[in-house]
Design goal:
The complex is a heterotrimer.
Chain A (H helix, E strand, L loop, with lengths): L3 E6 L3 H11 L5 E6 L8 H12 L4 E3 L8 E2 L2 H7 L5 E4 L1
Parallel strand pairs in A: 1-2, 1-5, 2-3, 3-4
Chain B lengths: L1 E7 L7 H9 L2 E7 L7 H10 L2 E4 L1
Parallel strand pairs in B: 1-2, 1-3
Chain C lengths: L1 E6 L5 H13 L3 E6 L10 H5 L6 E6 H6 L11 E4 L1 H10 L2 E4 L1
Chain lengths: ~90, ~55, ~100
C-alpha cells in the first residue's frame, strides 16, 4: 500500500531535498514543506527543486520569500500534517 | 482526535513552540524533550507505539 | 511494530541506543538507516553493534559516508552500504519513523 510521507525541510536544506527525492523510489507519495526560512540558494538545492517539479512532487512553504512553491499558512500546514503516515523533519 | 507525539531532539527552538501550538488545534499533542532525558526509553517506546503520528523535531 | 530510525546526525547516540534496545525488549523490529552526519556513528562500536542484534536491520547511504569520510570497510556484513532506496524501503515498511 502506498505510504504518504511529509518531509519538513528545516535546516540542512540540500540533504532534506535529496532525501525527499529518494523517498519516491518506491512510489510512495512524498510532499515537501519548506518551513520558516528561505530555501538556501545553492546549485544543489536548485537542481533538487527542479527535479521534484519534473517528478510532479508538491513543494509547499510557509515562507513567502520562497518563489515557485505553493504558499500555505502555518495553520493549514498543521491541519494537513496528521494526514501523512510519516512526518520527517530534517 | 489524532494523538501526535512531538519529540524535541535538541530542546525547544525558535520555531517549535509555534508549530506545537498550531498542531494542537487539530491534534492531541504530547511534547517530550529528549534533551532533558525526562522519559525512560521503555516508556518512550510505548508512547511511540501508542501515538497515531510522530514528529521528531 | 516495525520502528524505523532515520539517523541523520551524530548528536543523539544515547537516544539511538536506548530507543533501539528498548524497542527490541518490547519485541518490536527495528530498521536503521544512517545518512548525512549520521554516518559518522559508524565509527562508534556501540552503534555498529546494534546491527548484530536479532530483529535489527541496518543500512546506510554510501554517498553520505563518502562525504563524511566514514569508514565503511570491515563493518559487520549485516550492515548494508547502500543508497536512498534503503531509506525509501524503511519508510515504506515501518509503522513509525523516528529521526535522530
Amino acid at each position: 500500500m502506498q505510504k504518504k510521507i511529509a518531509v519538513l525541510v528545516r535546516d540542512r536544506h540540500s540533504e532534506a531535498l535529496r532525501m525527499s527525492l529518494g523517498l519516491i523510489l518506491l512510489d510512495d507519495l512524498v510532499d515537501v514543506y519548506v518551513l520558516d526560512k528561505k530555501l538556501h540558494a545553492t546549485e544543489e538545492t536548485e537542481l533538487h527543486v527542479e527535479t521534484m517539479k519534473v517528478m510532479d512532487m508538491q513543494i509547499y512553504t510557509n515562507c513567502r520569500e520562497n518563489e515557485g512553491m505553493e504558499y500555505l499558512p502555518v495553520d493549514e500546514i498543521a491541519r494537513r500534517l496528521p494526514q501523512y503516515d510519516h512526518i520527517l523533519a530534517y | 482526535m489524532v494523538k501526535m507525539l512531538f519529540l524535541l531532539n535538541d530542546g525547544p527552538d525558535a520555531f517549535s513552540g509555534a508549530w506545537i501550538e498550531a498542531l494542537s488545534r487539530n491534534c492531541e499533542v504530547e511534547v517530550i524533550d529528549l534533551a532533558r532525558k525526562q522519559v525512560p526509553y521503555d516508556a518512550l517506546v510505548d508512547k511511540i507505539v501508542a501515538c497515531d503520528k510522530l514528529i521528531s523535531w | 511494530m516495525k520502528l524505523g530510525m532515520l539517523i541523520n546526525t551524530a548528536k543523539h547516540l544515547d537516544d539511538v541506543l536506548g530507543i533501539c534496545r528498548a524497542a527490541l525488549a518490547r519485541n518490536h523490529q527495528v530498521i536503521i538507516f544512517a545518512m548525512d552526519e549520521g554516518t559518522r556513528l559508524l565509527e562508534n562500536e556501540a552503534f555498529v553493534s546494534l546491527a548484530e542484534l536479532e530483529d535489527v536491520s541496518m543500512s546506510l547511504c554510501d554517498h553520505s559516508a563518502k562525504m563524511f569520510g566514514a569508514k565503511t570497510e570491515g563493518m559487520p556484513p549485516k550492515i548494508v552500504c547502500a543508497s536512498q532506496l534503503n531509506n525509501a524501503m524503511m519508510n515504506h515498511s515501518a509503522d513509525r519513523v523516528i529521526v535522530l
